[in-house]
């Protein structure tokens, strides 16, 4: 096996005696690693055959006029006009042209004037190292003291005609132009007046128009007059229960902020813990309200709002109403606040059964009206032609489920509502007088009435001797033609009041005395 020489051995070719360095080997450069070239890359990127360097001319190249080698190809000669304009002077061998008058290579000077002035190299405008110097303005001074010139005097001022038209318009032409403008303006105004007075947008100008005369449109007692006085006392009632709720109406009946409305407007709010009740007045004032008391049997409730100096409605008497009297309904139907509708009293003492809560019947002794009443009018005001409150709008008859007004609306008479409201404000609840019987409506050839189905033990009816099968036809001063009318007649009396009861028992009329008890 042959042994490779160590790179640390001395080189005898350097002519030095390195015997002393034998024990200290010297480090020589590591030989360069030249990896083999890929034949495919060599074929693609290698120099052409016969070319030894990067800038070597190809074989067969010829030298150009300036002695440099070329590839044997020459550019096309320039066009004749360009050659004449830019060619060198005849016999000149210079490659760079100089300004006229410059010295040539042979030391001669051109006879043409020099391009640069003498001393141009000292000109500060051409010297980039020159300092900036502030001088006077580049305006010729013509004031006093220079060449004896006097200051400029103020010139003549221009007239309005000269300012607008210059000096090319004669005064007569200006006057004519002004007169023409006046004439055109007058003619246009006259034509416009004639068109406005005699013309019609739908017919020709010769049509005969109806006469319009000034008149008193809002006399005392008119609907607009009554509405303007009553609207501030009627409020919208908003009930919020979680993400739901409902709307209704109410009437301010006391200066301390008591509002009378229907029980069904606030019944859900009284049972929900997170319910909120608000009242919105005619001027947009919004106030939180609390429920003072409710009476489900007459569908009435009283709210209390904390407001200063509210407008209070004036109470009337429903007993003074007659069929055909004009009435006005005010409320917030379908959420439309401060809505006013007009009608008449269609009927009085109409026994109307309502959808109530609990097991007891809800029957009102209603005032019937054809004034338009819709959902949301509940709790609103029914006023007479004077603007006095005669009823609380409560219910309507509809042609179908969820329908609107068909001209049959019902209101609780204010004579009954005032008594219930006063009791709710004092005690928060109301007790009603009753006989203590359950009845149904019956009719035969002799008439109709309320037939007793059962008698409650220990009730006023049991003590008076009323039995099952009796048909009650009158209670006190009110005739009874149905079971609903018996309920209305009971509520019109006081607890403990003794009343006469007329009934039919086995075809024979009987009159009894009964002392009404509390429900």
TrEMBL record:
Bias (Low complexity) occurs at: 128-139
Q: Which PANTHER family match?
A: PEPTIDASE S12, PROTEASE DO-LIKE 8, CHLOROPLASTIC
Q: Which organism is it from?
A: Longimycelium tulufanense
Record GO terms (molecular function): serine-type endopeptidase activity
Where is each PDZ domain found? 424-507
Q: What keywords are assigned to this protein?
A: Hydrolase, Protease, Serine protease
* Top-rank lineage group of the source organism: Bacteria
A GO biological-process term = proteolysis
Disordered, as annotated region:
1-152
List the biased-composition ranges (Basic and acidic residues).
13-36
UniProt keyword Hydrolase present: yes
Identify its protein family: Belongs to the peptidase S1C family.
What is the recorded name of this protein? Serine protease
Family matches, as SMART domains: PDZ
| Cross-referenced SUPFAM superfamilies | PDZ domain-like, Trypsin-like serine proteases
Gene3D superfamilies in the cross-refs: 2.30.42.10, Trypsin-like serine proteases
Membrane-spanning ranges: none
**InterPro entries for the chain:** Chloro_Bact_Ser_Proteases (IPR051201), PDZ (IPR001478), PDZ_sf (IPR036034), Peptidase_S1_PA (IPR009003), Peptidase_S1_PA_chymotrypsin (IPR043504), Peptidase_S1C (IPR001940)
